[in-house]
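Job type: complex structure
Entries:
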Amino acid sequence: MPTTLDQIYENSKAKVIDIQGGAGIRQRLSQMGIHPGDTITMLRYGALGGPILIEIHGSQVALGRGIASRVIVEEME
Amino acid sequence: MRIALAGQPNCGKSTIFNNIAGYKAITSNFPGTTVKYTETRTHIFGYTCDCIDLPGTYSLTAGDPAELEARRHLLSEEVDVIINVVDASLLIRSLELTLQLLELEVPVLLCLNMMDEAQRKGIQIDAPKLSSLLGIPITPTIATTGKGLKEIFIEAVRVYEEKKRGKTLKFSRDIEAIIDELVSVLHSEWPVNENVPSRFLAIKLLESDEFFVKEIKAADFLSRVRFFQKKLEQIHGVPSDEVISSERHALAMNLFEHASTVIHPPKKDIRIAIDQWVMHKFLGYLILAAVFYGFFNLIFGIGGYIEEPLMELFDRWIGQVEGFFGEGNLSFFLSKGILQGIAGGIAIVLPYLVPFLIGLSILEDIGYLPRVAFLMDVFMHRIGLHGKSIIPFILGYGCSVPAVMATRILEFPQHRFIVSILTTMIPCAARITIIFALVAFFISPNAALAIFALNILVVAISGKILSTFYPEASLGLILEIPSYQLPPLQNTLKKSWYRIREFIVIAWPILIVGSALLALMEYAGVERYFNWFLSPLTHLLDLPISVGTTLIFGLLRKELSMIMLTQALGTTQVLTVMTKPQIMVFTVFVTFYIPCLATIAALWREIGKKGALLAILFTLSVAIFLALITRIFLGVLF
């Protein structure tokens, strides 16, 4: 079931389905190597609604919750 | 011939550059250390090579000013060879930039850097295979140890001589058809900027690159571009920029699959365990506090230990000078002034500056700062700023000038404006020296900590106030968190030396001359005019009238305020002429008031004349206000 990137459990993997929002966000994320079809590992949530930390293609990226909520993902087993 | 080092942030361009240039470009382990280019001249096989170290850029699509600077250079047609530095452990993402660089139609060679890191991650790269797929030479390197660096420049010369260009890797057929159509339209209709290859331009237009789209003046041409974008969107069902970036991503993945094998899963090393603690929701903040508290005490411990005996020594010498020349004559004043200037450098500034800069370099090089950005992001947003702003702020503790320049990593001009002004209020190494040598030394380390705490609070409140004038919903944090690195000690020391040298060759002579000048003014009796001019301020803050001149000198270099203080007061035993509350008020004022000349110049460049002026007025009012509050508050207490 599709959900957003800020909703999945720590240490679980998810597949990017779509990135919502303007070209700005899409381009920034694609530069970090995040595109539809890619697999993301959720590493941790920051305190007090702070950023999340994910792993994508072997690099670690911090994303604000606002941005994470625009990344539609499907959780993988 | 001109060689440009281009690559994604934090892949080691500056480290390679420094290897041939001597230490010229600051390196650290966070993305975006280099925000403007550095150039050096070197000789390879009889060629005079100008080598340029460019700011890191994730792609060649318009981004923040630092990235635009890199792109501007690459498109300037003055670059003969591009050395594309790549973090081999992040090959897929890095190749996306490589593909764009190949579209520039300039000879490119690939420098597969951080091979050791790739190995640790279990990635085995077949360099000859990749080389034949891309049609460019590839050299594996490990920049931190210097491995392979010589070969890369030899290869660069060879590529230059052969004028060898790489292959242009093709997208899917339908996309290529549209690119071809657009290219032919560009050829016939648009008076294209000569420097920009038309295929590159066509792709960037399809990607709605802000910069190039703005270049299009004629509305009917813009609508033709839109027509092609629409066509792409109809076929693929997603926005045209996404079509292109997905294609490029697929090409990069394809290259990766063909030219490398993952032989084992990444080794679970200690660094992952460290992050479990360092980036933890709760422990992370405790560690952050402990790191900075420990750092603070270490500097104070070392500095205080050295300062005391040295000051005693210089005091004795100044006493001897008095005995030698007799009091009150010109040679006494002059030699006293010079001696105090020298003493200020050796005994007051260097004991704190050296451990501080070495400590800062270590924190930068191991990669702790991006973690701090991660932890602090939520607080930065509370004060209306972007999480990445923490990096200029932390750099501000070293020197305000690079801090102001580091605001180029922020995308929105209004953020740059606010952060530039705020970052000048962060005490730089010079002001930290003052806080240590005056407050911690004469009052107590806790009083000094209180000033740092007050500073952070004031910067936060100022951020909140300034950001209300610029309400703009910001894009949230997108920041790469690089792996920890154990940098060779040599690099860290070289960097510290690079920064310490700046004090020794630039600031210290100014200190000595300034100190002599003040002594002469004292001799001629003119310093009282300055003091008289500033007397409303010193009176308001209940400070000795003689500190007036030191505040003016402080505009040149912040260290001068401190060193001149002992000079102006006529004794190094500050406590005999100033009360503890007075020392606090003075330090608070000096911490916040008007940035030094070099910083004002940097502000002028980055945010314009008006911005610089606003920064001066804003910091001056904040300083007066806070110093006054401190005076009243401490007056009630003591």
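Summary: The CA atoms of residues 318 and 328 of chain B lie 13 Å apart. Residues 173-262 of chain B form a domain with the Helix Hairpins fold (CATH 1.10.287.1770).
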